């Protein structure tokens, strides 16, 4: 979605016509209800692309390499669930909350971070499981058996925007 009704609230030096940029953005973004936002796992701010950006060299990792990493992470997931007697489960997206809590159990420092964040961000039960699901997937992308603090921190960062919108509304 655009950041605000005029679409330019995030641009340096741009002043929204309907008052402060933060207000314009909050009013516009509040059109998406909290329960709907809660169901979207990855919220990322995407700055406008400038002509200067297009002149930069392309990123080192191309789409093909990324597709390979994703396929490996998905294979890992299917293999994990097959190994615990759930061959019909192919990905973290569809596994039950109970199994997820088991296979995505973070290390001690990850657990501490998750507890703090659940409190500070007032995560719903659904939100909590969604963070675990995303963190488990990030660990799979890294090829790791254990979900670490770094994976939880990244997963939580994708929800921070929803948290901001809720506060501003
Ligand atoms: Zn605006």
Walk me through the structure.
56% of the residues lie in helices and 0% in strands. The longest helix is centred in the middle third of the chain and has 21 residues, at 63-83. It is mostly helical and 169 residues long. The chain has helices at 21-29, 34-38, 51-55, 63-83, 97-103, 108-120, 125-141, 149-157, 160-168. The model has no long low-confidence stretch (mean pLDDT 90). It has a domain at 63-168. The chain is globular and about 60 Å long. It contains nine helices and no strands. It binds zinc ion. Zinc ion binds next to loops. Zinc ion is lined by residues 4-6, 9, 16, 24.
Instruction: Give the proportion of residues in helices.
Output: 55-70%
Largest sheet: none
Shape: globular
Mean pLDDT: 90
User: Which structural class do the helices and strands define?
Assistant: mainly alpha
Count, helices: 9
Assembly state: single chain
Order of helices and strands: HHHHHHHHH
Comma- or semicolon-separated keywords:
single chain; binds zinc ion; mainly alpha; 169 residues; 9 helices; 0% strand
Topology:
Blueprint: H1 21-29, H2 34-38, H3 51-55, H4 63-83, H5 97-103, H6 108-120, H7 125-141, H8 149-157, H9 160-168
The structure holds zinc ion (ZN).
Q: Can you summarize this structure?
A:
The protein is an all-alpha fold and 169 residues long. It has a domain at 63-168. The chain has 9 helices and no strands.
């Amino acid at each position: 979605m655009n950041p605000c009704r005029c679409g330019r609230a995030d641009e340096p030096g741009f002043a929204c016509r309907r008052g402060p940029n933060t207000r314009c953005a909050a009013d516009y973004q509040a059109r998406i209800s909290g329960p709907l936002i809660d169901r979207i796992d990855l919220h990322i701010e995407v700055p406008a692309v400038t002509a200067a950006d297009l002149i930069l060299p392309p990123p080192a990792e191309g789409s093909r390499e990324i597709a390979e990493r994703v396929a490996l992470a998905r294979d890992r997931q299917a293999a994990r669930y097959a190994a615990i007697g759930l061959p019909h489960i192919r990905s973290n997206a569809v596994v039950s909350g109970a199994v997820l809590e088991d296979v995505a159990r973070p290390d001690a420092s990850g657990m501490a971070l998750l507890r703090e964040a659940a409190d500070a961000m007032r995560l719903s039960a659904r939100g909590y499981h969604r963070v675990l699901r995303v963190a488990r997937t990030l660990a799979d992308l890294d090829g790791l058996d254990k979900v670490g603090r770094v994976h939880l921190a990244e997963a939580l960062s994708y929800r921070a925007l929803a948290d901001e919108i809720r506060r501003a509304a």
